[in-house]
Specification:
By secondary structure, the chain is of the alpha+beta class. It has one domain (70-249): Porin, CATH 2.40.160. The protein has four helices and eight strands, in the order ααααββββββββ. Strands 1-2-3-4-5-6-7-8 form an eight-stranded antiparallel barrel. The termini are far apart.
């Protein structure tokens, strides 16, 4: 008598209950592709300094973060802070011409001499410092192309300016630049903001410069001042430029 062997209804001859070989091959191929993509990203990170995002906006942001030095952000903050103070002082006279404002201005600038006013032509010489080190001597000048009547006793002027910096050793020229400025004049005090473009003879590269200046007249034809500027594009030594200068007016 033959014994009948019962088979599972879902079992077919020649098959295995484990994963089909084609499915295992596809899984291995997927893992291999992911490993190759990760290896490519790691190689790119070694060369360019960071993993490369896939989306274009993310790539732009990642590239900007790699190139911008942290000191540049400090420069931007300092410049925005000084520019905010400049705009605040610029807007204050338009709000009121009261005695209280005049008294506050006199206290802030240790007295306003109403006998002195600025003129259209300014020429000055000074020293530029970066991170506490004297990097160059500065010789510059400006001319007010827009100077309405009465502007030097309390008003705005627009100026064109130019200058050069030298290393102080045999008069070696470091850079030359020129641009435009917006100034607020109040008798013997002048507040200015400027934007220049220039060329550096040492690095043989062009640059931009944004800065602010504060000037005050000790006599009718002379003035002293301080300034703070930031150069673009930035580098690993993107420290602000601080300047002190003295000049004459015509």
């Amino acid at each position: 008598m033959k014994t009948k062997i019962n088979q599972h209804p879902n079992t077919n001859p020649g098959t295995n209950h484990n994963t089909h070989p084609d499915m295992r091959s596809r899984a291995r191929l997927t893992l291999l592709r992911q490993a190759l993509r990760l290896q490519a990203q790691m190689n790119t990170a070694k060369k360019g300094g960071g993993l490369q995002p896939f989306c274009f906006p993310c790539r732009v942001v990642a590239s900007w973060r790699r190139r911008v030095h942290p000191q540049f952000l400090i420069c931007v903050w300092d410049f925005c802070f000084l520019l905010s103070l400049f705009l605040l002082l610029l807007a204050a006279p338009a709000q009121a011409q009261s005695t209280n404002f005049l008294v506050s201005v006199e206290n802030y600038f240790t007295g306003i001499n109403t006998n002195y006013t600025f003129n259209r032509v300014l020429v000055w010489d000074g020293m530029e410092y970066q991170n506490g080190v004297n990097i160059a001597d500065d010789l510059a000048g400006s001319f007010d192309v827009y100077a309405p009547k009465g502007c030097y006793t309390g008003g705005l002027t627009v100026s064109l300016e130019g200058g050069m910096r030298n290393a102080g050793v045999a008069g070696t020229i470091v850079s030359g630049q020129g641009g435009a400025g917006l100034n607020y004049n109040y008798y013997d005090v002048r507040l200015g903001a400027y934007a220049d473009g220039g060329y550096n003879q040492v690095t043989h590269q062009g640059y931009g410069e944004l800065g602010v200046r504060v000037m005050k007249k000790p006599t009718q034809n002379t003035f002293i001042g301080i300034g703070l500027a930031m150069q673009l594009p930035t580098s690993k030594t993107a420290y602000p430029l601080a300047g002190v200068f003295a000049g004459v007016t015509f």
